[in-house]
């Protein structure tokens, strides 16, 4: 009889308890909250060990599929608060499905295309819903969703000329972008703009003037990036800034060594997942925003000629992250969550699965190594660490849009660059 | 079901459900009878279709109508408040409300009261803070801000939006006085509050700067004191490195010895990482006993990788290999190889 070789899980190792938080007998809100989370994670791990003779975490593919499939059509009124983020819902769900290698019927894909077309604004860019104002976040989500669909119909939804005009309309003199006309500035906008502009091939010589310098000014004393200069380093913003710099080819302007030290320090020694900021709590979504930085940094350091980069793994504990996601972030009824005790939602489903994919796949141009914790069925499709859609979809979009000329730059037209 | 907005943590909204005696829907109000509501154009085969409540549909049908007609009236203004209550993340509604505030010359003091209440209820929303910033700018009056933000921070001392707003108002209106004292108060309440440590860096770098020896010494001593009290507080160690790294962390006199002394009774992975940083800086600066320093730092990296900070094993091995590669001799390499790969 063949014996299946089961990788011993890190979280059941004999030394795992020594990773629990040390509060030095100084109790503060931070330590109290951290210990509560560790306690609930420990309970989950105990339960798992009790119910499974041989601990083999399993990805609940079918349950997640049912949850996602339904959400793509219908959402309860609990989603009223995301009524200005409906392209996001399309992206989170479509990306989760592609990671799970689940097909989307052509009719639904076509319906998504038509819906997103209704979210596109006459002045360019996409809004959170039909009739709303254009905003960089749903623009990013819509373009990503359309690239995941990847049909001619999908690509042709995007009005590239108008999109370029929209990007100019939110560009600021200091190199930053506001999220929408009359809206706020932060580093997310640079990422959203760089991602959509590069995918659809509308980058002009002046579009990102000053942007790399502005992004660099968001890197702080901690090594990570804040939302705007001066703010605390934060995983979401650090990802956006770094990925934008990679797209613009200027990643070497960042202090990569400090950034690397900051992000690796965000992996929680006990839980295995990542926190968003120093001394805050673990959250499944940072499995992507934080862990996703390691492939970006690996590539940036490789570009600089770093001779000491590993040829087999990213510079974070891939196994520990997979264990956290599989054991602590899955809702048995489908969908994934922030941490045990939290409710499922499509945002966490998308980013927990994206993080799981990052942790499973190590690769560069010539090589690809897989580390699948648990059953082989847990394997997800790889994701592109810059755009967070599958790499083939990125390649396909590039190929399609590079056949088209960059639209004529009409910088003056519709340029209402000063927010009210 | 708890829903989140992108980048924000989940929150539940608790609304009181009082059934009105008769329908208050806009479609039944006489004063709105002249307007044709505009239903949402989701197309024939909707996707991500939200099962809006009747109230939600009603309010937004009228909002769409008002937007389409570009109506600038008092009733349109009231309508924005209803729309906001149903979905405070609808940035299109907020933008229109601002257009109306200006067009109707509304009382901005009243608007401050309104936005104060909304933020207290939903402090983790982008739009509400941006709106408040706009009103403060129009009034050119930041006088309520620091107290208001302090109140929000008293409920959640790490609210990112609150800190962002605080930094904006301090910088725009030169309100630096007293901020360091505020930071110290927060650190007394929770020495692990990383947002407070960041604010400390923000205030000092924008006022005295860290170049003055008196300032730097004070900060180093303050931080070492915190580290002594709670050796496993990562924020304090990060701050110590953060303020010294530009000048060269090993350049600070007596620091290495102080840290080595702390190592005896108050060790932690963060202390060890800090030692790595000092040794690395010593190597970068050139100087005597390079080989000895290199051996020390590699041994430290190996201890971290193997035992004290295993979650960062890959990283510490990378650091050790990089240092060996950069500063090592071929003789030392054999020793290192034995250490790292056995």
TrEMBL record, chain A:
Catalytic activity: L-cysteinyl-[protein] + (2E,6E)-farnesyl diphosphate = S-(2E,6E)-farnesyl-L-cysteinyl-[protein] + diphosphate
Claim: Cell cycle is one of the keywords in the record: no
Cofactor: Zn(2+)
Catalytic class of the enzyme: transferase
This protein's record includes keyword Repeat: yes
Keywords recorded for this protein, A-Z: Lipid metabolism, Metal-binding, Phosphoprotein, Prenyltransferase, Repeat, Transferase, Zinc
EC number: 2.5.1.58
Any one annotated GO CC term: protein farnesyltransferase complex
One Gene Ontology biological process: cardiac ventricle development
Free-text comment on the cofactor: Binds 1 zinc ion per subunit.
InterPro entries: FTB, PGGT1B-like, Prenyltrans, Terpenoid_cyclase/PrenylTrfase
Segments forming domain Prenyltransferase alpha-alpha toroid: 59-389
GO molecular function, one term: zinc ion binding
SUPFAM superfamilies recorded: Terpenoid cyclases/Protein prenyltransferases
Chain's role: Essential subunit of the farnesyltransferase complex. Catalyzes the transfer of a farnesyl moiety from farnesyl diphosphate to a cysteine at the fourth position from the C-terminus of several proteins having the C-terminal sequence Cys-aliphatic-aliphatic-X.
Subunit architecture: Heterodimer of an alpha and a beta subunit.
PANTHER family: GERANYLGERANYL TRANSFERASE TYPE BETA SUBUNIT, PROTEIN FARNESYLTRANSFERASE SUBUNIT BETA
Similarity comment text for this entry: Belongs to the protein prenyltransferase subunit beta family.
Protein name in the entry: Protein farnesyltransferase subunit beta
Species: Scleropages formosus (Asian bonytongue)
Underlying gene: FNTB
From TrEMBL, chain B:
Molecular-function GO terms, alphabetical: CAAX-protein geranylgeranyltransferase activity; protein farnesyltransferase activity
A GO CC term attached to the entry: CAAX-protein geranylgeranyltransferase complex
EC category: transferase
InterPro entries listed in its UniProt record: Prenyl_trans_a
KW Nucleus (keyword) present: no
Keywords: Acetylation, Magnesium, Prenyltransferase, Repeat, Transferase
Pfam families associated with the record: PPTA
EC number: 2.5.1.58, 2.5.1.59
Cofactor(s) needed by this chain: Mg(2+)
Catalytic activity: geranylgeranyl diphosphate + L-cysteinyl-[protein] = S-geranylgeranyl-L-cysteinyl-[protein] + diphosphate; L-cysteinyl-[protein] + (2E,6E)-farnesyl diphosphate = S-(2E,6E)-farnesyl-L-cysteinyl-[protein] + diphosphate
Tree of life domain: Eukaryota
Subunit structure, interactors included: Heterodimer of FNTA and FNTB (farnesyltransferase). Heterodimer of FNTA and PGGT1B (geranylgeranyltransferase).
PANTHER family: PROTEIN FARNESYLTRANSFERASE ALPHA SUBUNIT/RAB GERANYLGERANYL TRANSFERASE ALPHA SUBUNIT, PROTEIN FARNESYLTRANSFERASE_GERANYLGERANYLTRANSFERASE TYPE-1 SUBUNIT ALPHA
Role of this protein: Essential subunit of both the farnesyltransferase and the geranylgeranyltransferase complex. Contributes to the transfer of a farnesyl or geranylgeranyl moiety from farnesyl or geranylgeranyl diphosphate to a cysteine at the fourth position from the C-terminus of several proteins having the C-terminal sequence Cys-aliphatic-aliphatic-X. May positively regulate neuromuscular junction development downstream of MUSK via its function in RAC1 prenylation and activation.
Family: Belongs to the protein prenyltransferase subunit alpha family.
Protein name as annotated: Protein farnesyltransferase/geranylgeranyltransferase type-1 subunit alpha
Organism: Scleropages formosus (Asian bonytongue)
Gene of this entry: FNTA
